[in-house]
Amino acid sequence: MTVSTGEPETPVEPSVVGLARHLRVALVYGRDARHRVLLSRIALAASLDAVLAVAADDRGSLVEIAQAFRDASPDAVLIACDGRDVRRVAVALEALRLGCAFQRPRPTVHVVADARVGERLRPAANPFVLDVHADATAALVALRALRRSAQPDAALRDELVEDAARALVASTGSSGLVVDVTETTTSCVLARAVGGIESVHLTRAGIGASVDRILAEVGADGVRRWLPWPIDAPALLERIYNRARWPGALPASELALAIEMAVARETIAAAVRAAERASIDVSELRAAPNMLVTGRAAGFPRPAETLLVLVDGLQPTGVVTVWREPDDGRAERLGLVVTVWGRRAAKLAAVAASRRRTTAGPRPVAPKRGCVPREAPVVGWRYATWSADHPLPIGRVERAPVGDRVNAGDVIAAGLMLATPTRLSGARRLGLEPDDLDRVLRVPVGAEIPARTVIARTGRRFARAVTAPHDGRVLQITADGDLYLAPVVGRWVIRSTLDGSVTRSDDAVVTVEGSAWGLGGFAAYGPDAVGELLLAVDSPSGELSPGRLDVRIGGRIVIGGARVSAEALTRAHACGIAGIVGGAVPAAGLRVVYDDGALIGGFATREDRPTVLSLIGFGAAALPRELFGPLKALAGSRAAIHTATARLFVFAPSDAIETATTAPSIAIAADYGGVRVVTADCAAAGEAEFASGVRAQAVRCADEVFPAANVRRVDEPR
Question: Which fold has domain 396-490?
Answer without folding.
Answer: OB fold (Dihydrolipoamide Acetyltransferase, E2P) (2.40.50)
